[in-house]
Amino acid sequence: MEKVILKGVTKDYHLGNTVVEALKGVSIEIGEGEFVSIAGPSGSGKTTLLNLIGCIDKPTSGDIFISGQNVVGLREKQLDEIRARKIGFIFQDFNLIPVLSAFENVEYPLLLTKIESPKRKERVKSALEEVGLLNFARHRPNELSGGQRQRVAIARALVTNPEIVLADEPTGNLDSQTGETIINLMLQINQQKGTTFIFSTHDSMVMKHARKVIKIHDGKISQ
Amino acid sequence: MLIHLKIAIRNVLRNKRRTLITLSAIVFGVVSLMLFGGYMDYSFKGLRESFIRGRSGHLQVYKEGYWENKNKDPLKFTIDRDDYSAIKKVIEQEEHIDFAMRRLEFSGLISNGENSFIFIGRGIEPAQENMLGIGTFVQITEGKTLSDGDQDGVILGKGLAEQLEVPIGKYLTIMTTTIDGALNAIDVKLTGVFNTGVKDYDDRALMVPLAASQNLLYTDDVQGIVVVLDKTENTELVARNLTKRFKDSNLHLEIKTWSELADYYHKVVDIFNGIYGFLKIVIAIIVISSIANTMMMSVFERTREIGTIRALGTKRGGVLNLFILEALTLGVTGGILGLFFGTIACKAVSAMGLTMPPPPGYSQGYPLGVNIVFDVMVFAFILSVVTSLISGLFPAHKASKLEIVDALRHI
């Protein structure tokens, strides 16, 4: 079953009196367990595409199917639920909550679902272990390096066992060596767990590791 | 969710300087309310006791019809010896009454042989009047007060004594009309000078033993029985009970509480309460502005964080709760600190031993004191919490309405 299907998706932004067409009719299919990079220059629409798949934005027209469910036209609370249960996010700027420890940051998405405390603690521990940061569980984000923060973010994205992980330029704020480590980590998880990874990037190193590359240019998919 | 409370509290602790400034505004508000409310309570109680002990007693019992007619015919509706015995019997059965005493009011002229002056006089039972307030609330500034053995002594109000200019021990003549309208006079010996603190009263007042006044007016009656209680707080209760008992015993009497007689006191209370109400509003506005400002800054700075938690699946309601909790944390913390510092401030001001100037109509000042009033503390705390909730509402609402993609794009 295809995990993500987009059919004729467009997205327009209104800036004052002008209309910017960020996506001009995009149709793609991404299978379960794929490790896909969406590549393109700045302004090509890759972040917009990711936002739509991640249900944090709505298309102007077209359909989007996540695990067979059309998310277009769903109510806001339903989309909140889908994000909580099915989707994990990794951001370029890490976006960890500054006043929470690494452990608490990873725990946060689990608190949005109704899992009891002992099971939660176990899941958080194993997620941190997976990214090699169990010893740093009590550290606050400002006590961690960039690479460590991104690893915490990956643990957070995975702790709910999502179906899809979306990463917007995950290596953008990291040096090349750390960046490579991160991508390899994501690959490893993808192979072990079969989680679908979709990330946007214009980093050629990252594109190298992807098993499928979707090229986007000026709001359209290019081949 | 508990995690939101954790985040709220930690964010309050995070920016210590800003939190301190915000809390200071709340503490300032609570302390001001406690000081002013406590000062009001102290002043009211002082004024009240001064009136009760220096003038009216807690309750006054008259013959039915006396109060309406007292200006036209003060000697018409009186309480005779039989009435008095009956009243005494009823009073003995009632709890909370310390004692009761008779008073006979009259007016006339007093002369030192050379000049005459108008007076307002009162025939008293000296031992009981001393238990009420003569010697304590009513100061004796010269000589001594009357005692039960005195047959023909008189004590004069300060202003009246100054006008008459006679030494202690000298005789004066007082002249009035009897109950039947005939002129009568007696000689009285100046025993002492008193000061109630109320100038208009002290300029005209004098007191003689009850027997002397009854002699003068040719009557065995009195107009009023003054009832003194164990605690002022029991006034309404005892008034109700006595009214019922008098009715049940078929006595045609009316009762006035000190409150019904204390016109000046109520005017003072009303003015103070008006000012206090104004103060409450001003403080509420200050506290709301302070917290709202802090919360708006907090929301602005954490826009990206809000976008992130929304992307993770937090609902709009969750974001609203997060910021409401932060505002409440400020309000509750500020409230508690305010009560703490307020208590210290009240105690400190009372300990300073300052003297307030005399209130209008009084001839002497009184020591400054601030009571710690439970009701004021409760109100101040609730005000802190409610104002913090109100201040947090708008920023929290704005936060919850943010669009995720816009929030994530924020710096």
Query: What quaternary form is this?
Result: heterodimer
Report helical residue fraction of chain B: 55-70%
Strand order of the largest sheet of chain B: 2-3-8-5-7-6
Taken in chain order, the helices and strands of chain B follow as: HHEHHEEHEEHEEHEHEHEHHHHEEHH
Q: Major sheet of chain B, described briefly?
A: 6 strands, mixed, barrel
Q: How would you classify the helix and strand content of chain A by structural class?
A: alpha/beta
Radius of gyration of chain B: 32 Å
How many helices of chain B? 15
Strand content of chain B: 15-25%
Per DSSP E runs of 2 or more residues, the count of β-strands of chain B stands at 12
Q: What fold name goes in the CATH topology slot of chain A?
A: Rossmann fold
- Give the end-to-end Cα distance of chain B, rounded to a whole number of Å: 27 Å
Unreliable stretches of chain A: none
Strand content of chain A: 25-35%
Write the layout of secondary structure elements.
The complex is a heterodimer of chains A (223) and B (411).
Chain A: E1 2-15, E2 18-31, E3 35-39, H1 46-53, E4 61-66, E5 69-70, H2 76-86, E6 87-90, H3 102-111, H4 117-130, H5 146-158, E7 164-168, H6 176-193, E8 196-201, H7 204-209, E9 212-217, E10 220-222
Parallel strand pairs in A: 3-8, 3-9, 6-7, 7-8
Antiparallel strand pairs in A: 1-2, 1-4, 4-5, 9-10
Chain B: H1 2-14, H2 16-56, E1 59-63, H3 66-69, H4 81-93, E2 97-111, E3 116-124, H5 126-132, E4 139-143, E5 153-157, H6 158-164, E6 171-177, E7 183-195, H7 199-202, E8 205-209, H8 210-217, E9 224-229, H9 235-248, E10 253-257, H10 258-261, H11 263-301, H12 303-311, H13 316-351, E11 355-356, E12 366-367, H14 374-400, H15 404-409
Parallel strand pairs in B: 3-8, 5-7
Antiparallel strand pairs in B: 1-9, 1-10, 2-3, 2-6, 2-9, 4-7, 5-8, 6-7, 11-12
Helix pairs in contact in B: 1-13, 2-11, 2-13, 2-14, 11-13, 11-14, 13-14
